[in-house]
Amino acid sequence: MAVDTAPATPAGQAPAQRPQGPSRLRLLGTGDGVITFVLVAFLLVAGFTVEGFASSRNTGFLLLDVVVIMLIALPLTLVIVTGEIDLSVASTVGLTSAVMGQLWFSGLPLELIIPICLLLGAFLGAVNGFLVTRLGLPSLAVTIGTLALYRGLAFVVLGDRAVADFPRSWTGWALSSIGTTGIPVVVVPLLVLVVLTGVVLHATPIGRSLYAMGNSEDAARFSGIGVERTKFWLFVVTGAVAALGGIYWTLRYGSARADNAQGLELQVIAAILLGGVSIFGGSGGLVGVIAGALLLGSLRNALQLVNVPSDVLNIVTGVLLIIAVVTPQVAAAVRGRRRPRGRPAAP
Amino acid sequence: MTSFLTSRRMRGGLTGVAVAAMVLTTAACGGTTRGEDEGSDAGAEATASADPDAEIPADLAFAFLPKQLNNPYFDIAAEGAESAVAEVEGELNVTGPSEASASSQVSYINTLTQQGAEVILTSANDPNAICSALDQARSGGAKVVTFDSDTDPECRDLFISQATSEGIAQAQIDIMAEQIGGSGQVAILSATANATNQNAWIALMEEYAAEEYPDMEIVATVYGDDEDEKSFQETQGLLQTYPDLKGIISPTTVGIAAAARYLSGSEYKGQVALTGLGTPNQMREFVKDGTVTAFALWNPEELGYLAAYAGAALAAGQITGEEGETFEAGELGEYTIEADGTVVLGEPTTFDADNIDDFDF
């Protein structure tokens, strides 16, 4: 029993030569370095071997495909770190898109539609948050429900129609790139949000409390963390950010439809898990998540460029994800076996 | 020590991301690929004027991008495109998403742009969502021919229509009217609720039926989403909801096959007429066992074949997509471009017990 590794042994008491303190390690995300290394290695290999991969235009295509995934991954990472999940994000994107289309169709200005959509997203997130934190229902069940509910509502709002007459200046912006670099303009605000989320998660008491909740909700509660309140607001933020994703999605494709972003939640969660975040909460870091999203995106892009059929692409993504989830478990098991043997050496 | 190790780990991660960013940025600044700069010239040239006698260049890079892969209808159209491409000595790359959602084709079009495809043959899942991607492909020099489902006309060079929508709608209503004596309740089993072509046909069918067969009443339109099981259940639902139903029209190959399967195993076999758009191979057994008397379809193989020839003619500069221009489409003969850059394949074919064995697709 490795009971004595977890409790609050003051850091100073830990033997200096052993990188103990699993909780501190978790704080910084053990998978970050590995996945980032894999990403860099992959980019280098693909850049040299895949024709057409390393070019400004392809970089633009690649980044445009991952921005929404990355955007939604930011708040969802925090949610997953606390040990919860939100599967309704893609449906929130769809409902936001449908509402945006309907409001635009009915003649409202975009400057007004956008705040309305963000509020709608926050409200949809609040519904999840209420059901999870006030009624104490499991977030998996709640958000499977709202996944279907929000998508259904999207079809009620827009039905089988598509609203596509958004102004060219807006849709053009969604696709425009910085100078001749091919890097989409939208990457800039995304980076700001990435940094912001990174700071909150890794450098504030709030971030630490999220890991604490993910590791042991009871312990977090006893140490005075407002578990319910924090989780509630996390769901609200996730909803609002998903709505932002919906607004961008609509402009990027120039088409508001109820079925927009169907199935996107799985891609977002795949990126997060690939980035080394534990689905059970309590560990993982944002750097890994960003690397995970980029890795999935560039892998798909490169495989498409060498004409790998889409079915095989899905298989590759699936296998990769399983490897990403299994590897830390195996590593932990190996560590767990080693620990008792090393124990006698400890004072 | 602990803090040193962990912060090193974090620093490793951050450095990694920085390197990744640098790789992406350098990739962004340098590197030219096929089609990236040769493309823009080609585009500018071709828009100049049509030269009907231009030779179709050999080794043209054709891409065939259906709504989704592993769909029998598009597989047959791809075969047609394949034979046309072989005749003009080009190369064909069949690619596409595994699910038919509005935006799923975009990254595939981007890939084709990047690969420098010269002719893109596509059937659009959404008339607008793929527009900007197609624009980029065209500014990279590609010629875009849509078939089966069109995009916004601004986003492509030509659209190959399987038949006029009126022709398709009227053929189905006429077949149905003949079987039910021109009067009674009829229901429609469609594909997805947002399929452009389905909705256009349904509207025209309703219009034509109201004019020609005032006693025929279209009581409902249900959606089987082009899924076999859902279409099967919707058929069952229709027959329960409307006990006086005389006939079902399903203008989609998945729907009509599922409906036929339900009818052939039910008490309604031979009582409720079924027609619509189906492929001979799918429907053969139901025509033979008497569940279905007749149904219609254009030949998707010819559709793919014509689309490929139209793309070749565009790439060669024989046509530019203007109304009134003509081009040769191999064994199908000469075609004329109509308004809005549309080329019509022809009238749909009606299949029944007498002729179904002449077709294998």
Automatic annotation (TrEMBL), chain A:
Record-annotated membrane-spanning stretches: 34-54, 61-81, 112-131, 137-158, 170-203, 232-251, 272-295, 315-334
Keyword match Chaperone: no
Domain of life where this protein originates: Bacteria
UniProt keyword annotations, A-Z: Cell inner membrane, Cell membrane, Membrane, Transmembrane, Transmembrane helix, Transport
GO molecular function, one term: transmembrane transporter activity
Annotated region described as Disordered, given as residue ranges: 1-22
Pfam families reported for this sequence: BPD_transp_2 (PF02653)
Localization in the cell: Cell membrane
Membrane topology: Multi-pass membrane protein
GO cellular component terms, semicolon-separated: plasma membrane
Main location class: membrane
Stored InterPro entries: ABC_transp_permease (IPR001851)
The protein, known as: Autoinducer 2 import system permease protein LsrD
From TrEMBL, chain B:
GO-annotated biological processes: rhamnose transmembrane transport
GO cellular component, one term: outer membrane-bounded periplasmic space
Chief subcellular location: other
Keywords associated with the record: Signal
Domain Periplasmic binding protein: 62-318
Pfam families listed in its UniProt record: Peripla_BP_4
Disordered as annotated region, ranges: 32-51
Signal peptide start and end residues: 1-20
Domain of life: Bacteria
Subcellular location: Cell envelope
SUPFAM superfamilies: Periplasmic binding protein-like I (SSF53822)
GO molecular function per UniProt: carbohydrate binding
NCBIfam families linked: RhaS
The protein's name in its UniProt record: Monosaccharide ABC transporter substrate-binding protein (CUT2 family)
Species: Blastococcus saxobsidens
